[in-house]
Each structure stands twice: as structure tokens, then as C-alpha cells.
Amino acid sequence: MTSKRTRDRLVSRLSENGVSDEAVLDVVANTPRHLFVDEALAHRAYEDTALPIGHGQTISQPYIVARMTELLLAAAGELDEVLEIGTGCGYQTAVLSQLVPHVKSVERIKPLQDKAKERLRKLGVKNVEFRHADGGLGWPEEGHKFSGILSAAAPRSLPKSLCDQLAPNGVLVIPIGGETQTLTVVIREGDSENFKKLTYDTVKFVPLLSGLS
Ligand code: SAH
After folding, report:
1. Nearest 10 degrees: CA dihedral of 81, 95, 24, 28?
2. CA 112 to CA 185: how far, in whole Å?
3. Is the alpha carbon torsion for 126, 132, 39, 97 positive or negative?
4. Phi/psi of residue 55, each to 5°?
């Protein structure tokens, strides 16, 4: 159920559905998604579907993880560091960690993040820094800017705090909306205060909530 063949089937499906970045497809093929869900759900880990991870949250559908990652890579130039909002079970974190030099990941539900940290440690991932924090505020440190930000939780409207933390030409990939959302790519134009917005798939993410849990 977790064989190479099962994973390859998932990758073929993502590719049929329009994911075309070979590096992203390779990483999906090499990331053991069954280790990111409860054992009882492991047999469904390579279906292209979201699955519950406890605390009312879900591991994102592989298509969405791959799609957001490829949108980020395609829109960005050199990505040195990516901020991920909503660590969840850490699957998207693991995917990103294989494609960019440094990842910072914030999550508001501590037990979820603790588990994700432990998983990534066991997998030997060393380029991720975690913080139990409200990601709606980004990674608020004086002057810290990111070449990429990816949010796995959906605000109703675009948070200014996240735009402010984009480096020149930095890219933010984020679902925006209510019950369903529009996957949106926001790009800082050079070092200006102008942001270009591009819209893509209609998606269904959990809401970006404020405060910690
Ligand atoms: N990529 C994750 C997705 C998890 S779902 C995975 O595949 O497992 C989205 C996550 O965002 C949830 O864990 C939720 O708790 C978290 N979240 C929601 N609002 C947040 C906020 N303001 N700051 C940080 N994390 C938040």
C-alpha cells in the first residue's frame, strides 16, 4: 500500500491533472505521505485526497500541495527561504524542505506542530525552523523578509502583514475567501509597495484563525 508503484500512481494522477514541474513531482514521489497520517489512515495516504489529522484539521490533498509548490517555484526567482503558514502534519513542510534551502513554519495548534517536528526529525530533515505562533502575523521580526511565503490556511482577505514581509520580487501563494477560496499568487513588484495578484484554482482550505491553541 505504500509501495513505489502506489506512489508512482499518485504522481501520474497529479501529472494528468496538470502539475508539470518535474522537481515537484519527484519530491512527491519520494516523500512518504503515509508517515504523516494516523496508522489507521495510512492505506489511503496515496489517494489524491485530504485526510483528517486531528484537532479538526486536515492534511492537504497532494494535488493542492504540488500545485501550490509549483506556483511558488514558477513565480519566484531564487528562493532562499520560504515561510510556511499552517504546519499541520508537516507534509507540505517536508515537500518544501526538499526544494528550497531554508523553511520556517508556523502553526497555531501546538500538539500538531510538535508531532510534525518529530516526524521531520525522524526523516532527517534539518533545514526547517518551527514556531508556535499566529501565522496571520507572518514571522514578525524586525526587517525579516521572505522570497517566498506559502499559506495552507485561508484568510477572508489578503493580510497586509504577509505582503509586508515579502522581499523584493517575493511571492506569496495563498487561498483567499470564505467557504471556498481562490488560490492566489501575490508578487511584490521589485522593491516597490506594488503587488501583482494572479488567481488560479477554486480551493477549499481551513480558515486562517487568529490566536494560539
Ligand atoms: N500543509 C498542512 C495543512 C494543514 S491545514 C498539511 O498538509 O498538513 C492548515 C493548518 O493551518 C492547520 O493545521 C491550522 O491549525 C493552521 N492554521 C490556521 N490558522 C493559522 C494561523 N493563524 N497561524 C498558524 N497556523 C494556522
Report:
1. 170
2. 27
3. negative
4. 55, 25
Helix (H, G, I), strand (E, B) or coil at 16: helix
Catalytic residue among 60, 97, 147, 151: 60
pTM: 0.97
Per residue in 181-210, pLDDT (tens digit) is 999 999 999 999 999 999 999 999 999 999
- Rounded Cα gap, residues 59 and 62, in angstroms: 9
Give residue limits of the domains in the chain: 62-203
Note whether 63 and 34 are within 8 A (CB). no
Atom of ligand 1 nearest to the CA of 213: 15
The CATH fold of domain 62-203: Rossmann fold (3.40.50)
- Cell output for 190: 521589485
What's the mean per-residue pLDDT of the chain? 96
DSSP state of 4: H
Q: Which one-letter DSSP state was computed for residue 12?
A: H
DSSP bridge pairs for 197: 186
* Ligand 1 midpoint to CA 37 (Å): 15
